[in-house]
Amino acid sequence: MNPTVPLCYLPKGTGYILRKNSPEKLILKKSPFGARNPFGKDISPIFFSTRSIGSTLNVRIDAPDRYEPTIDLPKKPSRSVDSLYVQILDDLDIFSFKVRRKSTKQFIWDTSIGYYCLYALPQL
Question: Source organism's superkingdom (predicted)?
Fold first, then answer.
């Protein structure tokens, strides 16, 4: 480890690449050119999907055969005068996305900043 490099830094090319686009979900594969997962074994492939529940945007990133906690999240449609949508960025080598507010087009979540990587945290 280099004391001058922040621990959250991951080099360019680290992340996932879009491999297949299906109506239900996107299939992402770990890029062979980036750094390895600092928390353990790399997970590949992973799946990315979104859906609207009323005005609520549900973004899901998961992997095959992984444990899914049984958390009772509200699934009733929400109501709002505004809504959100996902913009997939296809101009980068590494998969990223932004969540935008429909009324103002303002980004409220941007995974392209700083080469955001999708990594699983260690099991606790």
Answer: Eukaryota
